[in-house]
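User: Predict the structure for this protein chain, please.
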Amino acid sequence: MYYFYSHIILLIKKYILRNAKFCFSSKIEGICFFSGNFNIGSNCRFINARVSGAVIIDDFVSVADNTLLKGSYDKSVKIGYGSIIGPNCLISTDYHYRYDGVVNDSLLKKMLPHNHMSNKKEINKSIHIGKHVWIGCNVYIKPGVVINDYATIGANSVVTRDVVEKEIYIK
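Assistant: Here is the predicted structure, written as structure tokens:
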């Protein structure tokens, strides 16, 4: 069974994910989705996780159930050696649009509260997670955040600022 599964992954890597790098000593459990330009180190563990876009994962990283790691086309999510990410986490560099100026589109005029919003500007920032970081369940890490080494992020937290080394962040 393991040979068959590894062979399928090899085919996916060879024909679909040309820029992706996935070390075969990593373990995948359940249904996991991998897409985009990712790089996954050795001895990582994924349980029902989703990885898409520019994501760089070092060795011995564990990602639990229903977690989304999403990098964009030019900004990446970087996760350091030995980090553990709990279930139901969202770590995404995803951009949103900020509008300045005048709206000409009638649909946007209905959606946006003010008429002075137009000229889309993308807001898109990388996320860096250091080595040996523990991230609890149901955590959202906003774009642009840096979590330094040996930090702990408590369950149900929304990380909006940088976390210093060995800090316990609960919010």
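The longest strand covers residues 27-29.
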